[in-house]
Specification:
single chain, 312 residues, alpha+beta, Immunoglobulin-like, 5-stranded mixed sheet, 6 helices
Amino acid sequence: MRDVRLIPASEGDTSSSPRLANDKMTDNKFRSVALQAAFLVFFFCLGTSSWAAPRTTNLWWMPDVASKHGVQVDQLFYFIYYLTGGVFVLTQVVYIYFLVKYRARKGVGAKYSHGNNQLEIVWTAVPTAIFIGLWAYSNHLWWNVIHSTPPDDAMEVGVVAYQFGWSMQYPGKDGRLGRSDVKLISNDNPFGNDKSDPATKDNFQSGVLELPVNKAVRIRLNSKDVIHGFYIPNFRIYQDAVPGRTIDWVWFVPTKIGSYDLACSQLCGQGHYNMKAQIQVVSQADFDKWYKEKATAALLQKPTDKAYAQNR
């Protein structure tokens, strides 16, 4: 006798299976899109508190150059930019030409080339010469312009970086910061001044880097804790501040009166995004007025110098 098995209607009717599978795929796709959207909203909300200060000039390009050395840095940048842009356009044109000319066509056979030694020499020698030329000019720019010896009348300013801010130190009436040592850097002596040097007695601090226009400025750079990046985009200046080391070869000449930003370009901790200081480039007369007020106020804080400061 033949066995007979009864099949439930839910198992026997397969007409709804594709619809159920499609519904399941739709649900999974919806969940995936919703999850991605949630992540985007989360990171957007997280990032709104860490936006940098808005740019007001050259929104789609580099900020305006405002230093003497920066002009030469930009010249090199523009040369490389237009050179690589021209090479890119030229190679794309050649690629498209070959794609069209040697496309597969009915009745046209393929050709095999063994190469061309002269052509290979040319396309090897030309890029090599360009790279050597760029290296030579870049090396000249680095050593003879950026790392050249500053003028004798350059104003020296001490800059110390710390998590997450900057502090500046100016020399007093004698125009000298005096001796310093990284081993002396502490909370009470952030610039590591050697107290035995009389030249350090009249130094004063500022939270703003105040500079006279068209005057050479030499930076004495230190870091109190971790590696920071001394970065002034408008001056085309960048230099790491390394703990335990004094960097004294950074100098520049600001050429435009205005307000600029000193930023940290090294990831130095949670507050890195907001580690910046204001730079004010002013006329020589305005700087002299500011300098006199600051120097006098610093001397008034020292009891032994009050009479001297009031008679200046």
